[in-house]
Design a protein that fits this description.
heterodimer; A: about 50 residues; mainly alpha; two-stranded antiparallel sheet; 2 helices; 2 strands; B: Fumarate Reductase Cytochrome B subunit; 2 domains; two-stranded antiparallel ribbon
Chain lengths: ~50, ~350
């Protein structure tokens, strides 16, 4: 049981770590795929996050 | 007067010109269409799309950073959409539900595979802590990946009507995040599994004999000799490694779109990802079945790491001999055994 719980915990920690790393090195789509002139304000959210 | 004569002559000839014009129009339908239906010769969408060959695209020009936004029409995208909305749910449904049906029938016909000699009460180490950690790391990630992936294919039909749009959207958003990020520990688990178990999963002649005898799964069948992993377990290992590799590579194309290919390649990888996933899930259902309900004593191998000695002798007789020769400790009694 301890091994199982440790595996679950590691999976969550690893996933959160990867999310933080990717968020740090990647630009949001509303920055990467548009110019400043096309941003009319708060991009809002949808299923893919900030748009 | 010459001028009066010209006007008079034109007035006389006017009906003749009109008749000639009418005759010309009637004699030339195409000209008539151009005159009266200027859009009739416009490009028909179907003809245009059918004229485009595999990989062709109709592209425009954009000034935003996303150059892919310049693609206006890509006919292969329609085939891809039809596959995802039409064929894939059928493939997945038949594969997964078919496997569940086969397992249910197998359970009803064969019943649970028992330990013939009964539990001895003595156990031996089957999987060390790190092996079990790796197994459960990969397995727990796989379950979340499978459920969140199935939500993409079936959620709109099965879950949306039950939960409503708001709850379904929130759940799908979280499922998508879990899918993207738990893929990384899943891939890590695959790599570790490959490294620690490859030496015991090389196919050999013994496996052919195991397959010929049905692996002891048939009613009244004797369990053939096997080393640490029998042919069935080796099959599962290679399915996990090869299937996991395909899922991982195709997953990289999806999580980082356009990084390594164009939209056509992206569509191909999504199809591979989806089809392999359905087959992968079906095979893992069989693995879960045989490791829990289907075989008495099997779950302990990954549960506590210790298996009953009689179970080990029946399913992995050669491995038990190797362990005994190597002087591996056995005969532990971690569980209370009822007195006989």
């Amino acid at each position: 049981m301890k091994v199982f719980v440790a595996a679950l915990a590691f999976a969550v920690v690893a996933a959160v770590g990867v999310a933080m790393v990717l968020s740090a090195i990647q630009e949001p789509s509303y920055v990467a795929f548009s110019t400043s002139g096309a941003r009319v304000g708060d991009p809002g959210h949808n299923l893919t996050g900030p748009t | 007067m010459p001028g009066s004569f010209s006007v008079l002559r034109f007035a006389v000839l006017k009906p003749v010109f009109a008749a000639l014009a009418l005759l010309f129009v009637l004699a030339s339908p195409a000209a008539a269409q151009i005159s009266f239906k200027p859009t009739a010769e416009a490009v028909h969408e179907d003809k245009l799309l059918n004229a485009l060959k595999e990989g062709d695209k109709i592209s425009g020009r954009v000034s935003i950073p996303d150059g892919n936004a310049a693609n206006l029409i890509q006919p292969a995208g329609r085939d891809w959409r039809d596959f995802h909305r039409g064929k894939l749910p059928w493939i997945g449904g038949i594969t997964i539900l078919g496997m569940l049906a086969v397992l249910a029938i197998f359970l009803m016909v064969r019943g649970r595979i028992r330990v013939r000699a009964g539990f001895s009460g003595r156990t031996m180490l089957r999987f060390a802590s790190f092996e079990r950690f790796t197994h459960w790391l990969t397995a727990s990630c796989f379950i979340i990946l499978a459920l969140s992936g199935l939500n993409v294919s079936f959620g709109r039909v099965l879950i949306l009507p039950l939960f409503g749009p708001d709850a379904f959207a929130a759940m799908s958003a979280w499922a998508k995040l879990a899918h993207n990020y738990l893929a990384f520990p899943f891939m890590l688990g695959l790599v570790i599994m490959f490294l620690i178990w490859i030496k015991d999963n090389i196919p050999g002649k013994l496996d052919l004999e195991w397959i010929k005898q049905g692996g002891g799964l048939l009613p009244n069948g004797k369990h053939p000799p096997a080393r640490r992993f029998n042919a069935g377990q080796k099959g599962i290992f290679w399915i996990v490694i090869i299937g996991g590799a395909l899922m991982s590579v195709s997953g990289w194309f999806l999580i980082f779109p356009y990084l390594l290919g164009n939209v056509t390649e992206l569509q191909v990888w999504t199809v591979i990802h989806a089809v392999v996933a359905m087959c992968f899930i079906a095979v893992m259902l069989a693995h879960i079945y045989i490791g829990s309900v289907g075989m008495e004593g099997a779950f302990d191998a990954m549960g506590t790491g210790e298996v009953d000695v009689n179970w080990a002798k029946e399913h992995h007789s050669l491995w038990v001999e190797e362990q005994e020769k190597a002087g591996a400790p056995s005969g532990r009694s971690p569980h209370a055994v009822p007195a006989e």
